[in-house]
Write a structure and sequence with these properties.
Elements (H helix, E strand, L loop, with lengths): L3 E6 L7 H12 L4 E6 L7 H11 L8 E5 L10 E6 L3 E5 L12 E6 L15 H14 L23 E3 L2 E4 L1 E4 L5 E6 L9 E3 L2 E4 L13 E5 L4 E6 L4 H4 L10 E3 L1
Parallel strand pairs: 1-2, 1-3, 3-5
Antiparallel strand pairs: 4-5, 4-6, 7-8, 8-15, 9-10, 10-14, 11-12, 11-15, 13-14
Helix pairs in contact: 1-3
Length: 256
């Protein structure tokens, strides 16, 4: 049995959507611990949800069940899947949320279609509550993923989310903006040398810095964040406001 279920959603905390999923899980597996990774993935943002899971899921104990609900296709013919890897179980819509999982890590993929592991009445607009939360809870009790539905060979992977490398230049974009206004890119830190010049939307920032204190108050800096990706911040301020970024897609980062 798993002792932890994590939840990652785009529901926010103003409504009861995330809370009621916790209630469903507790009713099926009262002893399991529920940990929220984030309920603030931008609505329908598969890329942001994928980033949240890629960055944080690996820090949980082996056997953890990761439940992810970023599901603008709810009620359509998209699949709900349960993925078993060498370390974890993942449950969520098959829409690209799990793109970060390498093929070599996957033990099995099953659709979630067995009504025995769902609530009695299924809403067309809230599969997170009625299908995914129960599936995660039953998996945490040790139910074999094969009991949930048919085995499938693959799942949807997002395309166009990796940086482009051409003639030594790296071109990427912002994929997440945290609550401090820090801009997190899709460029992994190991791709960048110390002497490379980093720009955002044609505004030069400079070379990589190690700490916020490396620049004066109110000045921008580029650094490798705790998730391993290139990030842009402003000391004692918000890079989102400094660079007028209203949406992660409104960005182009270049490393020359």
């Amino acid at each position: 049995m798993a002792s932890i279920i994590t939840i990652t959603t785009d529901f926010g905390n103003a409504d009861g959507y995330a809370g009621v999923m916790e209630g469903i899980i507790a009713g099926i597996h009262p002893a399991v611990r529920i940990v929220t990774i984030s309920n603030h993935v931008p609505p329908g943002d598969f890329v942001g949800g994928n980033y949240m899971l890629k960055t944080h899921a690996r820090y949980f104990p082996q056997g953890t069940v990761h439940l992810a609900v970023v599901d603008p296709g709810v009620g359509s013919d998209r699949n709900i899947i349960a993925i078993k890897t060498s370390q974890y179980l993942f449950v969520g819509p098959d829409n690209g949320l799990f793109s970060f999982i390498p093929d070599e890590d996957i033990d099995s993929i099953h659709t979630v279609t067995n009504p025995e592991y769902m609530l009695g009445a299924i809403s067309k607009s809230f599969h997170g509550r009625d299908i995914m939360a129960p599936a995660a809870a039953y998996l945490s009790l040790g139910v074999d993923p094969a009991c949930l539905g048919a085995k499938v060979d693959n799942f949807i992977r997002l395309t166009g989310i990796d940086p482009v490398i051409s003639d030594g230049r790296i071109t990427g974009r912002i994929i997440w903006i945290d609550r401090f206004g820090n801009l997190i890119s899709n460029i992994e830190g190991h791709l960048i040398g110390e002497d490379r010049i980093i720009s955002l939307n044609d505004r030069e920032i400079g070379t990589l810095k190690e700490t916020f204190s490396s620049v004066a108050q109110g000045q921008p800096l580029a650094y490798i964040g705790s998730g391993g990706n290139l990030e842009i911040a402003v000391r004692d301020g918000s890079a989102r406001d400094f660079f007028y970024i209203t949406h992660p897609a409104d960005s182009q980062i270049q490393v020359a």
